Amino acid sequence: MIWIYAAVGLGVAGMAVLGVLTARVLMAARGLGRELDRARKRIEPAQARLRAEIGNRPSEG
């Protein structure tokens, strides 16, 4: 009977570890999303200038 309690306890402990790791992954993904948004906002002006420069080139042919 003690083996059943031990197995259940280990199962619950394993699920708790998985829950903590899942929370950490979700927080890291949220932080990465914020960092990507910041980078996109920083790159946007240069990207717009480059697109305008490419759009103003005379066509070849």
Kindly describe this structure.
- Keywords: Membrane, Transmembrane, Transmembrane helix.
- The chain crosses the membrane at residues 6-32.
- The protein has 61 residues and is mainly α.
- It has a domain at 27-51.
- The chain is built from 1 helix and no strands.
- It has one helix at 2-55.
- The longest helix is centred in the middle third of the chain and has 54 residues, at 2-55.
- The radius of gyration is 26 Å and the shape is rod-shaped.
Helix and strand topology:
Blueprint lengths: L1 H54 L6
What's this model, at a glance?
By secondary structure, this protein is mostly helical. The protein has one helix and no strands. Keywords: Membrane, Transmembrane, Transmembrane helix.
Proportion of residues in helical segments: over 70%
User: Averaged pLDDT, please?
Assistant: 92
Radius of gyration: 26 Å
Q: Main sheet, how many strands, which sense, barrel?
A: none
Distance between the termini: 85 Å
> Unreliable runs, pLDDT <50, ≥5 residues?
none
Shape: rod-shaped
Number of strands: 0
Q: Which terms would index this structure?
A:
61 residues, mainly alpha, 0% strand, transmembrane, transmembrane helix, membrane
